[in-house]
Automatic annotation (TrEMBL):
Annotated HTH rpiR-type domain residues: 4-80
Cross-referenced InterPro entries: Homeodomain-like_sf, HTH_RpiR, RpiR-like, RpiR-like_SIS, SIS_dom, SIS_dom_sf, WH-like_DNA-bd_sf
SUPFAM superfamilies: Homeodomain-like (SSF46689), SIS domain (SSF53697)
Organism field: Pisciglobus halotolerans
Protein name as it appears in the record: DNA-binding transcriptional regulator, MurR/RpiR family, contains HTH and SIS domains
Database matches in Pfam families: HTH_6, SIS
Amino acid sequence: MLGNNILGRIRSVMDELPKSEKKIGEFILHHPEKTIKMTTAQLGEAAQSNSPAVIRLCSRIGVNGFTKLKVDLSAEIVSEEKIEYADIQSEETMEDIKGKLLGNAFKSMEETLSLINEQILENVTEVLSKASIIYIYGIGASHLVAENIAQKWSRIGKTCICPTDAHGLITMMASTPKASVFFSVSNSGETKEIIELVSVAKKHHIKTVGLTKFGNNTLTNQVDFVLQTMKPHESRNRSAATSSLHAQFIATDLLFYYFVMKDYHQSMKKIKHTREEINRYKSNF
């Protein structure tokens, strides 16, 4: 059963924490067993910080108080099976590489699913269901996720546009019909082009949805609705986004199936119809 993944949440926001909260976070990450036996005052003192910083950290990671944090953390550290992120090293065997890639993929998806609650899915599903057009945009690896979103929702009858040219997107949004939605994808939440496009969408009264990593970033604060993924561990020597893509894809898959379940029979009818059309097209070759 998925918990609240306290350690994963703390790791995700460590880079953005003020010094007092960062000390608390570091202590919890290094001493989870000790933390669950402490009061806020004891933790503040042990971390060379203070008790208000403990409460602020709980709020920042979306946990309702230190007692709740301890309960969730206790369940997390007694879990029978722990899978941690692992970097690929030089001269690894093929079996080692397979195991590490599988473990990293599982960990990033597990942590992301633990982060997303039903209310978040309900809010995003509602705005997408009412959308006349869904514009989806991402840059680099995030564009792969944007294309995946467009492909999925177009199969169930939504008009989706996933351009590669920002100028073209701006001209479309400037004259779009009412009830359009702009779905932006940025793992960092700080991609300048994405942030500017959100501003353009808002200028034209377009509802905005963001897919980004957990924490306090510009995209999270700017969009109307946000779907967050847990910040995954990426190797310093990575050649491309890996764990972050797994997290984004599982988040959009979860959203898609939640959307489908709201009108299951009609959605499946449309999916079947699109599959039949594809097969009919392919039969001509």
